[in-house]
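Review this today:
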Amino acid sequence: MSIKVIKNQVIKTFVDIFDDYIKVNLPMENNYYILNYISYKKLVYKEKIDCFLEELKKYYFFNKQYYVTRRPNTYKSFTTVVRQICKRNGLVFETSSKYDNGKYCPEYRIYVSNVMQT
């Protein structure tokens, strides 16, 4: 019996910079990090997204780099990149919808292994 391994067709290799990025830039609750619209806007204000996306170009296949190079960057496009990296790196994440300012907005809980409580 052979086991079929599904190759990721978007990201080439393990994204080793991702764990450090979310540990530094996303708020932590219990044993997970939260990515929601508020934390996204804080990253935009601190100009932490564009340089991160630029670093990610080397991890993406050439024909899929539009995920990290398209502008303007929106919450939806940024969360797409985060979900792709989580799936490629084998990180567990949960999605829930939060009602804010008259519309529903997805909130992501990202569980990173060996999380250190500080």
About this structure: The chain has five helices and four strands. Helices lie at 18-25, 37-45, 49-56, 66-69, 75-89. The two ends are 46 Å apart (CA to CA). Strands lie at 28-29, 32-35, 92-100, 103-111.
